């Protein structure tokens, strides 16, 4: 059973005045997502043809801000289409397909493990991470999920999962802004499942989208316990915009390919490390 501040299976409730998201806004979100998906497809094609492209070139080509472009590239990297570098991205050639398979398998294993941590009746935060959101595909327990990830609206609606969108300004597939922050500040949950841009060589949990940094930190501070989901390719990233302020130690779930020296730095900070084995 899927809920989005209402039971989505009961169409009689769509126009209820207490519903935050009305039919029209849902249709607009779907249209926006189609536009984003088309842009992503074209972006991959352009980068494939050029080999590499800069954020400046892509922003100008698609008429989007550099922040939106970086977010697009982050999503496409998570899906295994390209590799980001400072200021741009490179297409992953066929020769790297084995590595891509490993990355995708790692993320699936991380999502599956995270799902196993959830108990019936749990409430949780999920941020804009696809790996965190994918954890819900591997569980059938009753959950209340508070998220700023608009992709939650496209998940299967046949399970006992209540989704509550934070509200806010839609940037790509992520809700941001003051309204989102105020919504999170008024909410306390059992568990937070959060993805990140990367983990630096010093063990810092990185976020390169400024508008999302405070949202992630709010989720961390309003959860009884939290789990950072990051495959091994995210380790050793260069610090960009900022890093999470971790008030209390939590847990990092990653795969067995993560570098030992950075794992040791995380342990020195009091973080627990869980290593999962990818299927490939």
User: What would you call the shape?
Assistant: globular
Assembly level? single chain
Q: Largest beta sheet, briefly?
A: 8 strands, parallel
Q: How confident overall, as mean pLDDT?
A: 84
Strand content: 15-25%
Which stretches of 5+ consecutive residues score pLDDT under 50?
A: 1-15, 17-23
Structural class by SSE content: alpha/beta
Number of strands: 16
Q: What pattern of helices and strands is seen along the backbone? A: EHEHHEEHEHEEEEHEEEHEEEHE
- Report the radius of gyration as a whole number of Å: 18 Å
End-to-end distance: 33 Å
- Spatial sequence of strands, sheet with the most strands: 1-7-6-5-10-13-15-16
Number of helices: 8
As a percent range, the share of helical residues equals: 25-40%
What does this structure look like?
This protein is an alpha/beta fold. Helices cover 36% and strands 24% of the residues. It contains 8 helices and 16 strands. The chain has helices at 23-50, 55-62, 66-78, 97-115, 130-134, 178-185, 210-221, 260-268, and strands spanning 2-4, 52-54, 82-85, 88-91, 122-126, 143-147, 161-165, 169-171, 174-176, 189-195, 198-199, 205-207, 223-229, 242-243, 251-255, 272-276. It has an 8-stranded parallel β-sheet. Strands 2-4-3 form a 3-stranded antiparallel β-sheet. Strands 11-12-14 form a 3-stranded antiparallel β-sheet. Helix 2 (55-62) crosses helix 3 (66-78). It starts with a strand and ends with a strand. The model is unreliable at 1-15 and 17-23 (pLDDT under 50).
């Amino acid at each position: 059973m899927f809920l989005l501040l209402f039971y989505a299976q009961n169409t009689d409730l769509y126009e209820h005045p207490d519903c935050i998201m009305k039919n029209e806004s849902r249709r607009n979100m779907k249209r926006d997502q189609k536009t984003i998906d088309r842009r992503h497809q074209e972006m991959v094609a352009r980068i494939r043809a050029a080999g590499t492209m800069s954020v400046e070139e892509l922003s100008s080509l698609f008429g989007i801000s550099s922040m939106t472009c970086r977010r697009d590239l982050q999503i496409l990297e998570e899906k295994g289409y390209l590799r980001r570098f400072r200021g741009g991205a490179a297409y992953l050639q066929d020769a790297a397909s084995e590595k891509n398979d490993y990355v995708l398998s790692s993320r699936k294993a991380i999502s599956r493990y995270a799902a196993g941590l959830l108990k019936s009746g749990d409430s949780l935060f999920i941020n804009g991470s696809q790996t965190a959101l994918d954890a819900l595909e591997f569980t059938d327990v009753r959950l209340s999920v508070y998220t700023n990830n608009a992709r939650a609206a496209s998940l299967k609606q046949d399970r006992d999962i209540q989704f509550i969108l934070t509200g806010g300004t839609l940037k790509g597939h992520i809700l941001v802004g003051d309204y989102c922050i105020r919504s999170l500040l008024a909410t306390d949950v059992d568990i937070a499942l959060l993805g990140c841009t990367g983990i630096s060589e010093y063990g810092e949990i990185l976020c390169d989208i400024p508008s999302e940094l405070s949202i992630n930190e709010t989720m961390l501070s309003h959860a009884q316990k939290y789990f950072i989901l990051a495959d091994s390719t995210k380790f050793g990233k260069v610090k960009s915009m900022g890093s999470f302020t971790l008030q209390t130690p939590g847990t990092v779930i990653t795969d067995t390919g993560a570098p030992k020296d950075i794992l040791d730095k995380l342990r020195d900070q009091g973080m627990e490390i869980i290593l999962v084995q990818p299927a490939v």
